[in-house]
Structure formats: structure tokens, C-alpha cells
Amino acid sequence: MIIVQTPLRISLFGGGTDLPSYFLQEGGCVLNSAIDKYIFVVIKKRFDHMIRVGYTKTEMVECVDQVRHELIREALRKTGISDGVEIATMGDIPSAGSGLGSSSTVTVGSLHAMYTYLGEMHPASCLAEEACEIEIDVLGKPVGYQDQYIAAFGGIRFMEFRPDGTVEVERVPVEEATLRRLDENLMLFYTGKTRKSSTILTEQNANVNDRLPILERMKLQALEARDGLVAGEVHAIGELMHEGWELKKRLASRISNPVIDDMYARARSAGALGGKITGAGGGGFLMLYCPKEKQDEVRGALSDLRELSFHLEGDGSKVIFNYRR
């Protein structure tokens, strides 16, 4: 039996510039971080030749082609596992539409678990690259590259997506005291709404050429935020995040709505310096940057929402149990 733990993520700056429709023309930059909320993938050998897949549903099938969970099906195809296994996924948060990168986390975690089951070691870069191939090239999802890479690498990362298709992943050299302050000042609240990111991202992809100046500024924000963190300027992140949210809302029509706007306005009035809806937008989690001394006031202003307590996570996808016989 193999158990793999893979982190979810928060995207701080530059989200949208990791879409191939943009970065293959202009190059993209993202600043993001893994968090200590996870998806666990379990794989074990079966006595017979059936394939059992457990998630919110349970599947029992005879061959890979019959697996309905498309991410697991394509991971099985990619790794060459054809039969005789049980696979289960379990998550710390709603598994779809959360805005915390759960789909890519499942893909990276599944690949990692399956390769470990086969006795193969693959680096984080390989897991991320193959997860992108599955989601974008094989399944045709209109998603970006950042989620797969942060799930595989973990930590707080600055990523460059280059026009030649290559990806550079850099661990941001943040001092421990600065990292602790950033960790303390970030909050997550569940909006109560999940959504299909593909609807928003399809429109966002179609709008790319009309939004180039906005995306250029969002890309520069990722650079500014990275340099600010290295310099220990934590509170500058909050103001940048507010600007970034105002920019992000202009990328597609469904990124925000009156309900989300009201939540955000209440949080800002109570002391949050900035924030955004995580992921594509439209629902999922509202992330806020708020000085610690103002956080109780923000909690009061958003008392109708459920807060998700979390911390930044230094590790990427990893095997936490490996038993062979």
C-alpha cells in the first residue's frame, strides 16, 4: 500500500499569466504557495484483476478505459498500470470548485502514487509536466500551469512560464520572520459556492488578446511581491493584492458577482488590506491579507462565512506511507 500526500495551494500574484494562451506569446510569472491542506491518494494491489476507484463515488471496472474519473484514468494510462489495483482519494476541503487547485493536486498525487507503486522515482518537475499534459493536452481543460507545479514542488514559489514552453520554478528566499508574518496575516473564508472553473477560464482564454495590458501588470505584480517578500516588506503584499483583485475582475465577466463584492467590501471595511477569490473566481474561497490585530474584526464582519484555518506548507507531494510485500 502506498499513501501520497499532496498540498493544495493559494495563488498570490500573476494568476492568469500561466495560461498557455498568454505565456506562449508573452511569457508569464506567478507567485504562489502550497498550504497545509491536502489531498491523499492511496493505491494498493488487488487479489484479482479488477480496478476499484474510490472518491465521492465508487467504481469497479475491468479495464482502464472504463474508469470514469478522468484524471485517474489518464494517470493510469500515463504510468502504464492496466489492472489489479485499488485507488482512493481523500481531501481536506470540497474536492471540486474550491479555487485551491484540487484537480491538479489529484493529478499530481495520483501520478506520484502510481509511480511509487511501480517502484519508480520521478522528480517534482516530471510529475508537474505530466500532470499538465494530462489536464491540458489530453483532456483539453482550459487551465494554467501553476497548480500542477506548486502541488509537486511545495513551498512559496516564484514561477516563470516561458514562450518556448519551459517552466522555471524558484523557491523564494524569504527570511523566517517574514514568512511567519505572511503566514499569520493570510486568511481564508469559504464563500459557500463552488463553481466550474472551466466556464470562467474558457472566457478568460478568449479574452487574452484584449487584456494584454492587464495581464502585463499582473505579471509585474508577481515580480514586485517576490522582491517585497525578500526585502521583508510584508504589508505591501496586502495593497498589491487589492490592486490585483481589481485587475483580475476585468479578465472575465463571472470572476466576481454582487455577493462576492459585498463579502470583500465588508472585509476591507473591517481592516483587511487586500484579498481575492482564489482560483478562477466565481466562488470557492475568499483569501484576505489582514494584519493580525484586525483579524477578529474581519471575522465578525464575515460571521456568515466559515473560516478555514491554514498555514503555508514547505513540502510538495510526498510519500507518507510505503508498504510493500
Please bin the fraction of helical residues. 25-40%
Span between termini? 9 Å
Low-confidence sequence ranges: none
- What's the total count of β strands? 13
Our estimate of the beta-strand percent is 15-25%
Separate helix tally: 11
Average pLDDT for all residues: 95
The biggest beta sheet is recorded as: 9 strands, mixed
Give the overall silhouette: globular
Order of helices and strands: EHEEEHEHHHEEHEHHHHEEHEEE
Radius of gyration: 19 Å
Helix and strand content put the structural class at alpha+beta
Molecular structure report:
Strands 1, 2, 3, 4, 5, 6, 7, 12 and 13 form a nine-stranded mixed sheet that branches. A four-stranded antiparallel sheet has the order 9-10-8-11. With 325 residues, the chain is α+β, with helices and mostly antiparallel strands. It contains eleven helices and 13 strands. The protein is globular and about 60 Å long. The chain has helices at residues 20-26, 70-79, 102-117, 124-138, 146-153, 176-185, 197-206, 212-230, 236-248, 258-270, 295-301, and strands at residues 2-13, 28-45, 51-54, 58-61, 85-91, 156-161, 167-171, 186-190, 274-277, 285-289, 306-307, 312-313, 318-322. Helix 10 (258-270) runs antiparallel to helix 11 (295-301).
